[in-house]
Amino acid sequence: MLRKDLYLPILLADEINRSPAKVQSALLEAMQEKQVTISETTFPLDKPFLVLATQNPVEQEGTYTLPEAQVDRFMLKLKIGYPTEAEELEIMRRMAKTGDKPQLRPVTNAIKTIEARSVINEIYVDEKVEKYIIDLIFATRYPEKYNLPDLKELIEFGASPRASINLNLASRAHAFMQHRAYVTPDDVRTIAMDILRHRIIPTFEAEAEEITPEDIVEKILMTVQVP
User: Fold this and answer.
1) Per-residue pLDDT tens for 30-56?
2) Which domain holds residue 117?
3) How far are the Cα atoms of 29, 112, 135 from residue 139, in angstroms, in the given order?
4) pTM for this structure?
């Protein structure tokens, strides 16, 4: 018999920007409340529960704009480009077959994931690193106070408080994966783009000049120094 506690529940929303409003609302409930509601019945989700979503940037026809409140609930936004020649060669060798495809093998389980999450809370973050995280977030809201006056007309909305929380957690997780019990400014800088790129809303002026949120984050990272 399969043990339920050994499996990590994952919700994969493929091409989330093609989902209509009702589907996005249901996803928002799952992400925020850790539950789903069918008719008048609410079902709690298993722990830990993970949401992964893809967004196809190529085709815009038939897509729906994602609400900013929903996007903000995703901890990370990763941009995935084309694979390298070696990677695509491996993909071709694995997938260019008829019939059965390669079988997946688990690399972790729910119990180990919960244990790892508890360890993250013990990773040390110095006050200077905490201040650095706050400075990065506030630079997206009040850039003129951080020697970035030219960004003021380019940012419609800066990063939310979820950004500082998630940047702290992700920096700890990065330190953990590097086998360290403390966070360095490099941990923060390494993960900052993935935390911030979907939380900064550029102005029309920025879009007209083809300035992206990534451009804004890069400039902030180059300018804001560790206290």
Assistant:
1) 887 888 888 888 888 877 877 888 887
2) 110-223
3) 30, 37, 6
4) 0.84
